[in-house]
């Protein structure tokens, strides 16, 4: 009996030690700091709840302990230098390396032991997300407010309409009464005079035919001007913003996430055309971003909408997010073009983005002090980083381009212009004395027909 009690007490002590040891594994780190470190170092390849480039890391400490009998020391070695661990002959390290297509994980010697403990604490006990503004609720609130405002406006409109109809009815009644009074008081002399007056439009036109012809001539001139003006604006689509097969919010990408325009539109700097980026450019980021976690929501859209659009990217590229590999089954995306120069117009993006970048920015900011730009693209395409759906921000007519060439000052002191236009400086100063030494694009051939037409 005594022996049994001794074993029982020893068992309790062992269980207590085991529990305290297990608890200490999870109590060594700060989950909130671990979350920051995880997002800064690990999210490119890992998530807590799903496999990405690497395995899901939620509960990884307990999983390794249960399945492989490995403790946190092994994880420390793996995180700091997994290559050295593999080269030491560690069996499980080499199994993991082979399982995930021999994609080598970056070493993190910069992480201290406490940093790693914080990360492991986060993977074991992730802190509850801080209460954030519910975008959907905000949209609903805005919708209700908008609906109430619309009802109020509708009621006001009805009141105004009824009031106008009432006033119109009263005026009509007064006119009829006045007509009756005039007839009652009309004398024979007035009746004879009325007999000589024009009583129809034909009589009136016959009596004042020269006035009628003048009015018809004026109407003809106005009609010709209207037709000419209409024809001049054919092909001008300022404000055109078609819906695309895959929704892409520039406000989220270029605005909130500060992605540089030329990261996606790379040929704008090196070629004539700023091409639509290929889908593999999207996959550079969205291979590891399979759902939308931003706080900003467009009116009428929710997280499910954005997640569905990301799935369209995967369908187009043939990407299987579960297996983290391409299937080879792709679907072409038929983008709707917004900006398209006519065939007889030559426009080179590189010439403006590289050679004219600072001059264009300076000119735009001088003319628009309340709407300054920091990227040359915005001078033509508008504040793209605020657009949910990209639209044509300017007219892009010949007159619009000429006006820009007439007002944009050329930096004559930069290395290229200073050398290339060395012999023209004096001539330009004499030819444009009013410029006070400031030369605009038109002075160096910016209005020559052959520059843009061929």
Automatic annotation (TrEMBL):
Segments traversing the membrane: 159-176, 215-236
Residue intervals of the Cytochrome c domain: 29-127
CDD domains assigned to the protein according to its UniProt record, in alphabetical order: Cytochrom_C3
Signal sequence range: 1-27
The UniProt record lists the keyword Oxidoreductase: no
Keyword list, A-Z: Electron transport, Heme, Iron, Membrane, Metal-binding, Signal, Transmembrane, Transmembrane helix, Transport
InterPro entries assigned: Cyt_c-like_dom (IPR009056), Cyt_c-like_dom_sf (IPR036909), Cyt_c_III_dom (IPR020942), Multihaem_cyt_sf (IPR036280)
PANTHER family: CYTOCHROME C7-LIKE DOMAIN-CONTAINING PROTEIN, LIPOPROTEIN CYTOCHROME C
Name of the protein: C-type cytochrome
